[in-house]
Design a protein that fits this description.
The structure is a homodimer of 506-residue chains. The first copy, chain A, has three domains: 78 residues, Archaeosine Trna-guanine Transglycosylase, Chain: A, domain 4; 144 residues; 226 residues, no CATH class. The model of chain A has no long low-confidence stretch (mean pLDDT 92). Chain A has 506 residues and is an alpha/beta fold. In chain A, helix 1 crosses helix 3 and helix 2 packs across helix 10. The longest helix of chain A is centred in the middle third of the chain and has 21 residues. Chain A starts with a strand and ends in a 15-residue tail after the last helix. Chains A and B meet through helix 1, helix 3, helix 7, helix 8 and helix 10 of A and helix 1, helix 3, helix 7, helix 8 and helix 10 of B.
């Protein structure tokens, strides 16, 4: 009926769906003094003003008034501590725990020429500028209807449309972020190396920047400019694009699944619409699975700078080397400056929904968020829009905004996505399978057709973090093999991409 | 074969599609000294280094080297002048020319309760956060397929999806821009006052902020939260949304067109993919039509701060009062600061395509851009995301980025859109009819199915700016009445909306 995350905690979390009634006896020593709703914090001892509130064994804030044992600890009772300054956090050479290797796990994937492995077989149409989005959406529909039925081995066609490319400060320092993102999106393993680009012709972002150098390639024939003078109107454009698409569909259609070791997994971990259970159930379950993937030699990425920023003191010591620690500090510092530049209010995260869900502040949220990275060392830190290079646990620096984070993880090269939610969000991507994990069982019961795995079962004692961590790992392998379809793919609900453009519009 | 825009100009524009060949005699006094391609500038006299280059009777830059008469004046020959500082431009009480009123022009529109007039009859589904975009797109498809055929008087259903609402600094000073934009989009006259909002539940942007106060309204029933605990999964959501949509479709279906004076027109002028002809043909034709609309008592908006910034010295004196002039300076100054904050390079506009099209720099582009506002006084200046209040010519401060400008003009309340292009862009909106005007005939010939009106006919002498201005005005009335369909509606190519969010993501 209450859940305590660490022996040193002085607050517990109510797991009773109807809440704790006043005078309810939690234990011989502890009685609820008022109604404490589901997901909210109850004080475990008499506490005085100024005393630290401890959760996950960490200070999440300081009491603004005295609070007796058994009271509902609300957001107004707690002051936000200052974020640890990055300079004050030292990296030390310590013996980071090495996890035991895990052998023998495989999945059926599409091996690409560059060694990466796809979990889907998708034709992606890259776009250099927002101006071509309308035409791109039109032709994607046409390709699905007229061509795809003839290429039964290709799963889907997606237009990588976005709002960048022109009307932007293309030479501003921050412009490199959206530009490399658009380029790297097209290189996601699920697209099989078949890059085709629709450009307009007069845009600032030159389509040539988006096409990788080919070995003995066919030159510029993978780019079509709508302004090309040889095209006869809209019909002419559509005919040309369909012909280009067909060339790529033919190649994609010949891809075959083969048995690949679990070390070819590249899994992006993300949470959105978090509640107080995310940090006790969904994120620890994801963290356990993260460790399994790393132990199997695979790649895991976690992200969301603003949600881990207040746990920097826990992350920096976990970096594999001082160089990696410095890269992490660099990315966090960049983001601090970016937020200051926009006069962002640090207390604006967590969202109102997070707060109603029981999260007091960003510190508590950060502690619960970092848990999904498991316990392995951080081997690399990736700037937004760049691709992951190393196997093991990577921190991919992104905003916490779900769509933007997901887009940057697609660009970083993930072939599987795990999305943990407590309050519920109908998140889904068409290009990479998204496994949605609920942090509480009521959500799974309500959203039975939207949630793939219920981590809320940890609360009832029916399952453990370990058992559900294994279940998630097995589910990742099944979905990656195409043996199971995730909820959002069954329903056909998918988000648009959302680029991170920290630079100005012009 | 060449076109001179003002008696004081010392450059002409080549209107010969194949360009001017070396030694070609333009006049007894002027011979081309090299090949000068179509759309490019030819020097009309011997000029020396440092001499001002004059176009539209205005300095567009200074020569970087001596240049003989008959040479091709290229971008490298010209230095960008400093933008006039806003403080140095004074507003003086002058007798601004009042245009003669124009009576007797009408169109058939949908009169709304608030007095505004729609030119289409569209159900819009507002969204408070990007998280609901996937579900919104799904239900829009379902409504189109399952419900719309039963409401034959309703033209279309659109989801006002966007990338704002959560994962953003909602309390940053700049947040007000996207928030009021989302709210005001739903109030566009073409949506008939039928606001329905899909929210998630835990987002930062509260859906309640998006619903206008109703007279004796039905409370919160126009908002559906996907996280609502009474909804049974995805199917439950879809069922509820369809029921809500049906209530609004019924009301929209009873709307009838009635004869409205041309003073009910609210026309947004925009250009994109401009070339050197935009400022001689398309924009002056649009400017002539602007004056006709203002003379008929209607409303015209022009926008694109970065493209008019270098013509501030021409715009400020045109303001109706000192108050309006100060508002204009305020918006231009805000944008200057915004660009400096992002370290934007002023020379990044015009785009590479603009330059290939013959535009030397942003000054030349600005002079050609402002022309589409016609010659009437500026009666008001509107901040991005706000609604137009006054009839007459309004400056609506927006980025030049086509999609963002269009979105802000929809939010400002336009019921007709004119989009002028020289190089060609397949721009289109589903909510407001977009008349696409080509600035040159080759584009119209190539994009015969994408362009609605060819202003290039001015060049051949076949038509005048005045005659085509009238043609555009009549076309606006015909399209507004539903008597003619614009190209992008016939083809079904429409852009997504793109919000202007000057604040940071979190």
């Amino acid at each position: 009926m209450i859940f305590i995350t660490h022996a040193q905690d002085n607050v517990g979390i109510v797991t009773e769906v109807s809440g704790l009634q006043p005078a309810f006896s939690v234990s011989p020593d502890l009685q609820a003094r008022e109604l404490v709703p589901f997901g909210q914090k109850i004080s475990l001892q008499d506490m005085h003003k100024g005393q630290p509130v401890i959760r996950y064994g960490q200070v999440i804030g300081y009491l603004t008034e005295d609070l007796e044992a058994g009271r509902w600890l609300q957001q107004t009772h707690i002051d936000l501590p200052e974020a640890p300054t990055l300079d004050s956090i030292a990296w030390k050479k310590t013996d980071l725990p090495e996890l035991d290797p895990l052998a023998g796990y495989t999945f059926e994937g599409y091996r690409n020429r560059d060694g990466s492995v796809g979990t889907k077989n998708v034709l992606a149409i890259t776009t250099s500028v927002q101006c071509v989005a309308g035409v791109t959406e039109y032709v994607v529909d046409r390709i699905k209807k007229d061509l795809l039925p003839g290429y039964t081995n290709v799963d889907d066609v997606v237009g990588l449309t976005h709002q960048y490319g022109c009307g932007v400060a293309i030479n501003a320092p921050a412009a490199i972020v959206p530009i490399r993102t658009v380029k790297n999106l097209a290189l996601n393993p699920n697209f099989g190396g078949e890059v085709m680009v629709l450009g307009l012709g007069c845009e600032k972002l030159r389509p040539e920047r988006l096409v990788p150098q080919k070995q003995g390639g066919n030159g510029e024939s993978d780019i079509l400019y709508l302004q090309d003078e040889s095209l006869d109107g809209f019909d002419g454009m559509v005919t040309e694009i369909l012909a280009m698409a067909e060339r790529h569909l033919e190649k994609l259609n010949s891809r075959k699944r083969e048995t690949c070791p679990a070390s070819d997994l590249v899994v992006g971990m993300q949470c959105g619409g978090s509640d107080v259970f995310s940090g006790i159930t969904g994120n620890p379950v994801a963290g356990f699975a993260s460790d399994l993937i790393v132990r199997a030699g695979g790649t895991v990425m976690f992200s969301e700078v603003t949600e881990v920023r207040d746990a920097a003191h826990l992350l920096i010591p976990r970096c594999r080397s001082e160089k990696v620690a410095n890269r992490l500090k660099e990315e966090l510092r960049w983001y601090d400056d970016y937020l200051i530049g926009g006069q962002a209010d640090r207390s604006a995260n967590p969202s109102p929904g997070n707060k109603r869900g029981g999260l007091s502040n960003v510190v508590e949220k950060a502690l619960g968020s970092v848990v999904k990275s498991g316990s392995s060392p951080i081997v690399d830190v990736i700037a937004p829009g760049e691709r992951v290079q190393k196997k093991g646990l990577n921190f991919v620096a992104t905003p916490a905004s779900d769509f933007v984070c997901g887009t940057l993880q697609v660009a970083a090269g993930m072939n599987m996505h795990v999305f943990i939610t407590g309050r519920g969000t109908p998140y889904g991507l068409s290009m990479v399978p998204v496994i949605k994990v609920s942090s509480n069982t009521p959500l799974k019961e309500r959203w039975h057709d939207l949630v793939d795995l219920d981590a809320g079962r940890v609360i009832t004692g029916e399952h453990t973090i370990e058992s559900l961590g294994w279940e998630l790992f097995e589910l990742i392998l099944d979905v990656a093999s195409g043996h199971k379809k995730v909820a959002c793919d069954k329903l056909g609900i998918h988000n648009d991409l959302a680029l991170f453009n920290p630079g100005p519009l012009t």
